[in-house]
Amino acid sequence: MPPLLPTRPLPQPLESTIGYLLRLGGANGFPSLTWLQAYRKHMGLPAQDFEVFFEQATGHGSPALLNLWGPSSALLPIRPEKRLGIKNTYWNLRYRRWCPECLREHGYWRAEWLLTLQIACPVHRRLLHELCPSCEQPVGWYSGELVRCRCGGELAQVARIEVTPPLQAIASLLSQKFATACERISSTLLSDSGLDLLLADVHVARLLELLWTLGCYTHHRALKIPLKVQHHHRIEVALPVLESAAQILWGWPASFQDFMAELSDPAQRQALDLHLFIGLHLKALSKALNHPELHFVRQEFERFVTANWRGVIVDRHRFTDQHLTAVQPVITGKEAAEILGISRKKVVVLVSEGHIQGWYPATKGSRRFLVVDRESVRRFQQGCSGGLFTLVEAARYLGTSRPRIRLFVAGGLLKPAFKPNEQKEHSAHWMFEQAELDRLLGGLSTQMHSTPDCDSLISLDQICRGRARDGADLVTLLQAIQAGALAIIARDPCQQGLKGLLLDRSRFNAWFAARLPEKQIFALAAAARYLGLKEHVLNRPGFRGGHFV
Ligand SMILES: [Zn+2]
Ligand SMILES: [Zn+2]
User: Fold this and answer.
1) pLDDT tens, 347-373?
2) What ligand has the least distance to the C-alpha of 98?
3) Which ligand sits closest to the CA of 99?
4) Which one of the ligands is nearest to 156 CA?
5) Ligand 2 centroid distance, CA of 148 (Å)
6) Separation of 171 CA from ligand 2 center, angstroms?
7) pLDDT surpassing 80 at residue 496
8) Among 406, 409, 427, 339, which Cα is nearest to 379's?
9) Where are the domains of the chain?
């Protein structure tokens, strides 16, 4: 066991570990950090952790350790939690960085100065320094003394360099987040400025990622992979990147929207492939910031895409594992072109503009082919929006029969634009507006579902086939949907009209179960299920009558 060092200064709030070792040596007559190597050899100390050495050499208990943060000398490695989850690239151990006024006032090295992206002092509102005022060289940790360069230059005597207000705000935020992470206290806002509110839930490690990524992507607009910037531990390299990040965050979200507008290609607004519109640069940026704490960036990104990209509908209709056969109401882009008598290119434009519905199914090869909803082609051919439908056409549009349409009208579900009088009711003089038919289909906003077979969904067709006798017939279901008791959540692209409407299975089951006891008259099968009996038992003479009350 080595003896305690003669002078044992206490660690100061948020002091850097490596800075403390320098100060500890200085207090005991060893001005340079190289003392550690010599001391260890002299004392015959084994390789050990910083924590063990600290207690043995100073006698201070572990509470004093709570003031020390950041990496230590390689000889005395520190526990990982002292790095606060911050990536090694953001810890700068190559050269020192400091605020001359802080150094003069307090005489110790703050841990946050080791962060590559902390380049200003939030207290003194000035740029940090990394060059000796005399020899103008970077100052390493193992050369020079506590506040003196190896050339003798005074590190605390450097002329002030101002920083811009956005950069100042970033430095304050970084400093505050760093302190919060060290003290493990819940984040308290410095102010209620927009920036502090926007980044309230962001940990310092993520803030560094955000600043670097956003800054690099906005500063180095021409580079494909701008994150690989050399020497980012140098203030002169980090400064313009941080300025860019600060400008974007300072004017959030308008500045970010402007930035995206500048980088996206307006000529590709209609492109089916989103990446053609946003370009590789924005695509990479949106991928880079995927931590949940940074979702506000993604939200802004999606807001931009939704507002500016016309290919949206198509992209959401991308299908996987869809078996496309001739009997299904899905045709190829080529067939659609033939039906419409136009070029395939024009079909692509019509799809991207939302006039007809189509998508690119996932295929194993790299070849992409367009498939199109046959019904949407027919609708388009008919002249569609605002068009009037006869009874036959309405039935085809809704994927149902003419008698059903009459039932819908009788049940108040559909209002015809024109209804022939009693004598002529059989004729095809009925008129329906398309908007009215679309309303029954759940409106135009209903999305295609990529996996309509999944267990969480049930289609109207399935329900009617299985439960119509028990009171879940098509008219009742549509009435419940219009009353808001049930909701259409998506469309099965392989089913026409009403048949393809998809409901949430568990919500339907709850609705259906709630209805069962209310019902006064049961069909045979339902009565048997309700009573927990076999159907043939109810068929016995005692139960005859067909209706059970
Ligand atoms: Zn300062
Ligand atoms: Zn010097």
Assistant:
1) 887 787 677 788 776 655 556 678 888
2) 1
3) 1
4) 1
5) 8
6) 26
7) no
8) 339
9) 257-327, 330-383, 388-440, 441-506, 519-549
Long-range contacts of 422-429 (CB under 8 A, 24+ apart): 428/390, 428/391, 428/392, 429/390, 429/391
What is the CATH number that goes with domain 388-440? 1.10.1660.10
Q: What is the pLDDT of residues 446-466, one digit of tens each?
A: 766 666 667 788 888 888 887
Q: Does pLDDT of 58 surpass 70?
A: yes
Name the residue with tokens 């906003």. Answer: 445
Q: Which ligand is nearest to the CA of 105?
A: 1
Q: Give the mean pLDDT of 405-412.
A: 86
Q: Decide if 512 contacts 467 (C-beta within 8 A).
A: yes
Quick one: tokens of 337?
């072109």
Position 283: which residue type? K
Mean pLDDT of 209-223: 84
Q: Where are the alpha helices (DSSP H) in 267-370?
A: 274-288, 295-308, 312-316, 333-340, 344-352
CA–CA gap between residue 353 and residue 269 (Å, rounded): 10
Distance CA 98, CA 293 (A): 30
Q: How far does residue 106's CA lie from ligand 1's centre (Å)? A: 10
CA of 412 to the centre of ligand 1 (A): 75
Ligand number, closest to the Cα atom of 129? 1
